[in-house]
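Researcher: Quick sanity check before group meeting.
Model: Go ahead. Protein one:
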Amino acid sequence: MKPCLHPSLVEMNELEAYLDLAAHCGYEWVDVPLHWIQQEAEKRGASRVEDMFQSRRLQLASFGLPVNLYADEADYVRDLALLSERAAFAVRVGAVRCTTFLWPSIDER
């Protein structure tokens, strides 16, 4: 097992600063919200995002499932329709794992 920096451990929401911190602290692996990666790719291009990881010798450990499992049905269906496109993009920047969580209970029957 290798240590992995998770965004819940830091107070930032910008990809480049997050990757700089991870590299500075000696991490090899990072978890990154997919929307951070997408925003950066829209600004600078997907190749630049790939370079951001490679130049810091960081690997993407996982990204969060970009589908809100607890949204209303319309939002869930919209997110689900975009999943293959988002997953293909995540793979391009090195993702091989996707994570999510399931609530342990719900208030409905």
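Researcher: Fine. The other one?
Model: Protein two, sequence then structure:
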Amino acid sequence: MLRSKPRNTAEPASGAPSAPRPAGQWIAEGDLAAVIARAQWLDAADQRFRRHLPPALAGQVRLANVDRGTMVVVVPSPAWKARLRMDTALLLAAADAAGIEARSVTLKVVPPDAPLPERPGAPLSAKARATLEAAAQSVADPDLKAQLLRLAASGRGPGLSVGNPESTDGSLKSR
């Protein structure tokens, strides 16, 4: 049984598409508006909060949340957490000066993002290389042909030439 596709409510009854609505309008009309407003408030509160801290400390902390009188502050390491656990009065004073109503502080460690180590991809199988080479031979576009041949060659180990179907992975040879 075929079902008819529901009509897009953004289109007028004539069937002609209407102008797209800006993303901000979609967001402002939905539940995301409150989330975005909260995030913007929290960002502004964080900036005000850090302005009232010593410069060395301001660069190490971030206001993550304020809820029912508890301020959540993130730090980059356990050492900073230990140091600030003894100095919560300084954090509460900075929050008060920034207009943030907080009676207690929760410290959380969130390490800075470390770059992911580069890892080489798995070597191409003989079948994959042969398929790429065959595809390269079947296209008329010289740039695409060169790219496909380069890709096929990138999966080879040293000493293997075009047309040699041996795998570059020694563990695959025994299969």
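Researcher: One line on it for the slide.
Model: Residues 42 and 132 are 51 Å apart (CA to CA).
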